[in-house]
Write a structure and sequence with these properties.
The protein is built from 23 helices and 10 strands. Helix 3 crosses helix 5, helix 4 (56-67) packs across helix 5 and helix 20 packs parallel to helix 21. The chain has helices spanning 2-7, 25-31, 41-54, 56-67, 76-86, 97-100, 103-106, 115-134, 142-145, 154-167, 171-184, 188-193, 207-212, 214-220, 222-234, 246-257, 266-273, 305-319, 346-355, 364-377, 415-428, 468-471, 478-486; strands spanning 9-11, 17-19, 284-288, 327-330, 337-339, 387-392, 401-402, 405-406, 436-440, 457-461. The chain folds into 3 domains: 40-192; 202-267, no CATH class; 277-491, 3-Layer(aba) Sandwich (Rossmann fold), CATH 3.40.50. The strands form 3 sheets. Strands 5-4-3-6-9-10 form a 6-stranded mixed β-sheet, with helices on both faces. Strands 1-2 form a two-stranded antiparallel sheet. The two termini are 28 Å apart. With 495 residues, it is an alpha/beta fold. Helices cover 46% and strands 8% of the residues.
Amino acid sequence: MENILKKNKTLTENGGVGYETSGHALVDMNYKVASYRTADDGTILADFLKAFAETPELAIKWMFYAGDIREGLGERRLFKILVKNVLPKYPWLIKFIPDYSRWDVVTELLGTAVEKEVVELIKERLNIDLGAMKAGKLISLLAKWMPSVNTSSKETVAKANKLCALLGMKPAQYRKTLSKLRAYSNVLEVKLCKNEWGDVNYETVPSQANLKYKDAFLKHDEARRREFLGKLTKGEAKINASAAFPHEVVYKYRCQSGEYSSTVDPALEGMWKNLKSIEMTKPMIVVRDGSGSMGCPVGGTRVHALDVATALAIYCSEHSAPGFENEFITFGNKPKLVKFGPNMTLRDKMTLAYHESDCSNTDIEATMDLILSTAKRSHLKQDQIPDVLIISDMEFDSATTCAGYSWPRTSTKDLPTVFESIRQKYKAEGYDLPGMVFWNVNSRTNAVPLQKNKYGLKLLSGFSQNVLNMALSNKLDPFEVLKETLLSKRYEVIK
């Protein structure tokens, strides 16, 4: 394995030497999640097959973790691609798709070898929902995500007509059935299409709809919407953000008012406060890459890598354990500790964070020195010394490579020597070297910065705050960190 790793070196965009593999194909996939949003189907499938060849059951579990909206990565396109190409061989797993994602993913299997099983699953759920509706009970979101026969998309209509035939229903019957179920489940889009804006319950609007229709609510239902926003500001109402990612809120804010605006949006502030909370059970300081390359868009969207890093830096600072809460470190050759005030709005924190972007080179030793000096000044105990979470696009400079490792630094010394130097500095002050986590938000070369290591360095990727759960692991090896998540109770049914 060691010889294989040495032969598989690659370069970052800036000439830094990294590796094509960490030594585990599944770890590589988990580290590349950010780049899979723009990767072609063949690349994704080829990477998955490598991971499957090494650890079949873990690879299948990871597929569901990648698509998991509530506790996983929430990568819907990636999940759809893998479902369509992998699950036909494992039909007993089809029934779990709605538990981790949405019913429209199930329809991706129409026209495959498991079409019969898919139709039976949909038919069973449809009958259950019709019975529950008649009894006045809760129903699933099946109807919401089934293809419609009366939509502008020819592809969707074709899929819907095919599904009608497979279900033994005429298009008119299928349309009326879905309409009844959608109306019963109070689907928002149905009300909006009928211009029933006054019937919208703003406290129950789904997360993504809150972002998508935020301006439309004000345009078509101004009085009620402003009344709701007033209550929201006073803490008398809540807004749904359960399925939103931090960067989606930050990006929306930046787009509507710019990077340095002081204009506060009550809806976005409320969504931020109601994001799914991941409490950091151990001290962790966030190091945010603000270099020029972070201005590149991610995942084929207009969202910048800097938006993602800024959102995650603010989020992590707010949820950090005592000692390093409400602060982050800029990642440059002169790192700086940035502190957020206790009464700052999200808008205030964004303005400050964007102002503190650093386009210079990155220096890991200087960053670690800053953390040590802060720990000394605050008289922190060992268990209060934070792990270091570096959020970056991982496109490090050519000066970052030495002794078989690639890292963000400006020193010409061997990396093991650098780490030994850092370790000695910490030891002299009565501290052990803290753990380090690299969170990839937009690598375009997919260079892996490290292989197996003795320093407790972890490799993460993605856009969901759920990724923090891996960062908080006490495991030292990246593969063991990933296994810990995949073997958890959440994914035990995936076999």
